[in-house]
Amino acid sequence: LRCGAVPAFVCRHFPGVRVDVVEPDAEVVRAGRDFFSLHFDEEAWEDLTPSGRTARIYKPAAPGRFRVWSGVPVWRFLECCSRDTFVAVLGDLPKDGGAAEGMHGLMLKTIKGLLPRTGGVIALAVNDGAALKAAAATMALPVNDGMFGPEAVRVACNPLEEAEEDDSSGGASGSGGSSGGGGGDDDEGPPAAKRAKLVPGRPPPTPPTPPTNQAPFHGVARGGGVIIARPGGLHLDHFTPAAWEALVVSKLCKGALATGGFPLPFAVESAAHAPNGAGDRVMHISFCATADEDEDDGAAVPE
Questions:
Q1: With a threshold of 0.85, does the pTM exceed it?
Q2: End-to-end CA, the chain
Q3: What pLDDT is recorded for position 236?
Q4: pLDDT tens digit string along 118-135?
Q5: Which of 68, 130, 269, 277 is most exposed, with minimal Cβ within 10 Å?
Q6: What is each CA distance from 214 to 95, 136, 144, in whole angstroms?
Q7: Interior angle at CA 39, CA 37 and CA 42, nearest 5
Q8: Do 56 and 84 contact (CB within 8 A), yes or no?
């Protein structure tokens, strides 16, 4: 999560939910506080001792506020967390630690390990089609390998974007620069990645390769999309306009979770499988602005 609209939305409308944000760039944190009037408490990583960091992680933030951990790479923050710390991980696929020295798959496995064994959800945006396929294929590896399994991982893309061309091998394993948007710098990666290069005669580790019977994620958009992973499995029915109305609008705007009947700024317009033989692994989902009721004549007009 970035320290912007999403965590602010969650804190405002789900007052019982705790939100922690990891932002490596302290300047981004300052901009969010100084120019966007966001209500959060900053935790400067380098100002805390190791024991102090652990204690703060498991201490709830103040009501109505989210907490931003600044000046720390994502992988280092993850090292301090244990299973059941979070019920959801949302935002951009972390780049620090990248695919260099095979740490890409390790980071995804670590992120999965933060969730409860039988629940939770992960939604990570990737702005490159090749990187998106590589990360999705890694997350779809079997549960025995520490991942979610093929039935629990789906990719959502904008149907208006051009599809990524598949390479001749048809595979989607992560290698080289196929990480979350780019390769990791050696100076920014985890210490384990650097140590691996110093072992004489031992090749550096590589990301896990999907089994040959695992269908690749063909048909993702060239500009990327969002990987969604849920241990209980995912299907297109979870993302249709009807599901949006039943699971989101009815509960947030009309049901017990409603806080003043606030309107949602957008809605799901359409949801369908990618039309290229990719099965149900890649979905095309589009959004539209919600309609407000015109005060003069009661007509619904777009925002």
A1: no
A2: 27
A3: 80
A4: 778 999 999 999 889 889
A5: 277
A6: 25, 12, 15
A7: 110
A8: no
Please state, in angstroms and rounded to a whole number, the distance separating the CA atoms of residues 117 and 151. 16
- For every residue of 107-157, which 3-state class applies, written as one string? HHHHHHHCCCCCCCEEEEEECCHHHHHHHHHHHCCCHHHCCCCHHHEEEEE
Measured in whole angstroms, the distance separating CA 12 from the mean position of its chain's CA atoms is 20
Does the pLDDT value for residue 151 go beyond 80? yes
The Cβ of residue 234 has, within 10 Å, a number of other Cβ atoms equal to: 21
pLDDT band at 199 (very low <50, low <70, confident <90, very high): very low
Of 248 and 259, the one with more pLDDT = 248
Longest dimension (CA), the chain: 77
pLDDT digits (tens, 9 = 90+) for 15-62: 778 889 998 888 888 887 778 777 788 899 999 999 999 888 888 888
- 208: its two tokens: 């896990």
Instruction: State the sign of the Cα–Cα–Cα–Cα dihedral 169, 170, 172, 173.
Output: negative
DSSP string, 43-105: EEGGGS-HHHHHHHHTSPPPTT-EEEEES--HHHHHHT--TTS-SEEEEEPP-TT-SGGGHHH
Tokens matching residue 141:
């590896």
Residue 274: C-alpha distances to residues 155, 196, 218, 268, 287 (Å): 10, 40, 9, 16, 16
Residue bearing tokens 């933060």: 114
User: What's the token pair of residue 221?
Assistant: 């958009």
What's CA 71's distance to the chain center, in Å? 20
